[in-house]
């Protein structure tokens, strides 16, 4: 690459993003430099220091407690446990869930070395203990990692005696929850299966 070192550095940074290889990264960086650099720099500097994790659900928020957790119309005794913020966005779009969320930060994956200590399970246990939670809905991708995480949580959380369910198998096998359409998600939530 015959670019100045700071441009090479940017290309290396973009190549770290999921699904972006070195060639795509090079194209993005050059495109930004030619056209939208200032817009992006301004947007990044506005977001820096203003976005944090909600203290309850760990979703991104501009306040200590996010809009969903602080909404008095939400049903606070039901928690949908999800892997990542995109899953919250997908479920919200289905308008079929009025409870709150808990973002684990991933799914168990022995192959990738993601064990329970990398997920926000202790934080979930504290919420169950302190907030009188009645139902936990496990809303995971329909794949081996989703299955492994659901089985693990079923065992680990059984001591609390809360009702636990998992999204119905309406989601196609191997599918990502975040890409499920609204109707599929609504039906998966309504027909959730007791664990
Ligand atoms: Zn929250």
Structural key phrases:
alpha/beta; Helicase, Ruva Protein, domain 3; 2 domains; two-stranded antiparallel sheet
Brief account:
By secondary structure, the protein is α/β, with parallel strands linked by helices. It has helices spanning 5-14, 22-47, 85-94, 121-131, 144-156, 182-190, and strands at 52-53, 60-61, 75-82, 99-103, 135-138, 163-166, 193-194. The strands form 2 sheets. A 5-stranded mixed sheet has the order 4-3-5-6-7.
List the helices and strands and how they pair.
Blueprint: H1 5-14, H2 22-47, E1 52-53, E2 60-61, E3 75-82, H3 85-94, E4 99-103, H4 121-131, E5 135-138, H5 144-156, E6 163-166, H6 182-190, E7 193-194
Parallel strand pairs: 3-4, 3-5, 5-6
Antiparallel strand pairs: 1-2, 6-7
Helix pairs in contact: 1-2, 3-6
Zinc ion binds next to loops.
Domain count: the total is 2
Order of helices and strands: HHEEEHEHEHEHE
Strand order of the biggest β-sheet = 4-3-5-6-7
Please provide the count of β strands.
7
Tell me the fraction of residues in β-strands, as a range: 5-15%
The helix content, as a percent range, equals 40-55%
Question: What's the pLDDT, averaged over the residues?
Answer: 91
Low-confidence stretches: none
**Apparent shape:** globular
**Could you give the distance between the termini?**
54 Å
Please give the radius of gyration in angstroms.
Answer: 20 Å
User: Main sheet?
Assistant: 5 strands, mixed
- Provide the structure class: alpha/beta
Bound molecules: zinc ion
CATH topology of the largest domain: Dna Topoisomerase Vi A Subunit, Chain: A, domain 2
Specify the CATH architecture of the largest domain: 3-Layer(aba) Sandwich
Secondary structure tally, helices: 6
């Amino acid at each position: 690459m015959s670019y100045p070192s700071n441009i090479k550095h940017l290309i290396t940074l973009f190549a770290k993003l999921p699904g972006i290889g070195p060639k795509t990264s090079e194209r993005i960086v050059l495109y930004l430099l030619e056209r939208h650099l200032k817009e992006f720099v301004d947007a990044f500097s506005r977001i820096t220091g203003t976005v944090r994790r909600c203290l309850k659900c760990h979703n991104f928020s501009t306040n200590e407690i996010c809009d969903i957790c602080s909404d008095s119309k939400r049903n606070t005794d039901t928690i949908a446990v999800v892997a990542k913020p995109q899953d919250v966005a997908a479920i919200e779009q289905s308008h079929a869930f009025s409870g709150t969320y808990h973002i684990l930060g991933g799914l168990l994956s022995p192959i990738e070395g993601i064990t329970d200590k990398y997920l926000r399970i202790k934080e979930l246990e504290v919420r169950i203990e302190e907030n009188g939670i009645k139902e936990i809905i496990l809303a995971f991708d329909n794949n081996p990692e989703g299955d492994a995480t659901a089985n693990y949580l079923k065992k680990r959380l059984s001591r609390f005696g809360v009702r636990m369910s998992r999204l119905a198998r309406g989601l196609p096998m191997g599918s990502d929850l975040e890409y499920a359409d609204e109707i599929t998600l609504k039906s998966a939530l309504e027909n959730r299966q007791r664990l």
